[in-house]
Structure to design on (459 residues):
């Protein structure tokens, strides 16, 4: 069995001693650096099992003892200790020392725990992640972007220096916006501010990843979460449990809030907050008025597709000096492009349209769905992680994590989501929506599937 997600490849899977799963892993363009941006990439690994007797799928817990897992050089296993309970819902694989280059066929053995005796089929899933280090950053760009955060009743950004409670208001050091339409509420200490270390998905959820998700649910859950369409560059056909994405590397659109939360709960991740979105984009770099995720305020439209629908889908547009490359403007590309479409060997941050830390497509391609600061539905978010399992009857197929807002939002209602904020714009939007501090769409309550909606998770 082999699993492919973006450029992660998992192969040569076998079972040892009924509790240890053995495989090899490869991925491209791995890094760990001790100079700016002083971070690394990683792969988040988790396992699902299907009971051969009942056909039911469930999450597999892993040992929290690092010595129970083995991995060959140049990688190491990292367990973040954030899961509730005594077991780990997954592990990170990352470089153990500084280095840059491809990871090729590295042997891995992971110890599974609390397996009830029986016969099972196992699936291993790998999601590329980027480390976002702990540290201060500036929030907002004064008043250059619509609804931009600022420092009280000034035109200055607000510097976030801790995860402590953050008051909203006009005083210095308070979180504020010029327009009441976008004004935040007080944020308690357990609302993630972006100061703490976090791992972020390098790419938006891909169509292939989402199909792997729905195909690995129980039948009633799969029926709720599955969506087939070939409109607007969505490429999913078929039905559970054999749905297929003909362009699996392309970013997943038509992703409703309920779909996104379900995927993140299932993969033991969580949604990011508005503040984390800006930290992931800007890092500790100085604020650029009207700036995009790649750190400048100029942009080149990615609108001439090459190798359409393939694993190398990209564009041939030449990036204007000083600009970043993004899919936007609703012209010849009427939907998402491949995850990481602009990144090639030796491309610069601007040519790749990457954030300070190396996260892709945070401006353009598809809207990022984040936790809002606008109301108590959002401010009540605590950063709790998914546990790998979705809800069962009678409300089947939903995320079920305490503090995640509107998890059972209606797929047929335009008013069922009150805790979500859209950030970063997408393929159908003009340039202003792509600005990393633009908050024009933080009030959308639409729970429906839309061809411009995408998303990703953090942990």
């Amino acid at each position: 069995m082999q699993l492919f997600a973006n450029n992660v490849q998992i192969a040569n899977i076998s079972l040892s001693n009924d509790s240890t799963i053995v495989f090899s892993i490869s991925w491209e363009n791995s890094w760990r650096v001790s100079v700016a941006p002083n971070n690394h990439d990683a792969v988040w690994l988790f396992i699902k099992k299907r009971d051969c007797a009942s056909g039911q799928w469930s999450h597999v817990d892993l040992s929290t003892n690092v010595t129970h897992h083995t991995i060959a050089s140049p990688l190491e296993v990292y367990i973040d200790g954030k899961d509730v309970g005594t077991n780990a819902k997954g592990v990170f694989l990352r470089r153990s020392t500084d280095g840059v280059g491809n990871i090729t066929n590295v042997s891995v053995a992971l110890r599974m725990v609390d397996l009830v005796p029986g016969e099972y089929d196992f699936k291993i899933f790998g999601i590329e992640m980027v480390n976002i280090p702990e540290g201060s950053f500036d929030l907002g760009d004064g008043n250059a972007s619509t609804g931009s955060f600022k420092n009280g009743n000034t035109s200055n950004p607000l510097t976030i220096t801790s995860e402590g409670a953050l008051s909203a208001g006009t005083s210095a050091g308070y979180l504020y916006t010029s327009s009441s339409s976008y004004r935040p509420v007080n944020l308690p200490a357990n609302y993630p501010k972006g100061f703490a270390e976090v791992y972020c998905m390098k790419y938006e959820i891909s169509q292939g990843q989402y199909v792997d998700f729905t195909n690995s649910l129980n039948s009633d859950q799969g029926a709720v979460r599955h969506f087939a369409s070939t409109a607007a560059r969505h490429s999913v056909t078929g039905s559970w449990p054999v749905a297929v994405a003909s362009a699996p590397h392309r970013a997943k659109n038509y992703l409703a809030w309920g779909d996104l939360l379900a995927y993140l709960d299932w993969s033991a991740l969580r949604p990011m907050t508005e503040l984390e979105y800006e930290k992931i984009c800007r890092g500790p770099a100085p604020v650029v008025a009207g700036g995009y995720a790649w750190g400048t305020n100029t942009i080149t439209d990615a609108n001439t597709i090459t190798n359409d629908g393939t694993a190398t889908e990209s564009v041939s547009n030449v990036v204007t000096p000083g600009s970043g490359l993004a899919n936007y403007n609703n012209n010849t590309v009427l939907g998402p492009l491949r995850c990481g479409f602009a990144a090639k060997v030796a491309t610069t941050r601007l040519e790749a349209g990457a954030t300070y830390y190396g996260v892709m497509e945070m401006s353009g391609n598809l809207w990022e769905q984040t936790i809002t600061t606008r109301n108590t539905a959002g401010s009540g978010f605590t950063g709790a992680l998914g546990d790998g399992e979705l809800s069962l009857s009678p409300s089947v197929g939903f995320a079920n994590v305490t503090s995640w807002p509107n998890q059972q939002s209606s797929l047929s209602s335009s008013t069922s989501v009150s805790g979500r904020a859209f950030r970063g714009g997408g393929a159908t939007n003009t340039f202003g929506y792509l600005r990393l501090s633009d908050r024009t769409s933080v009030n959308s309550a639409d729970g429906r599937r839309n061809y411009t909606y995408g998303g990703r998770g953090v942990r």
Notes: Confidence is low (pLDDT under 50) at residues 1-5. Residues 6 and 429 are 25 Å apart (CA to CA). Helices lie at 207-215, 219-225, 257-266, 274-282, 349-352, 376-379.
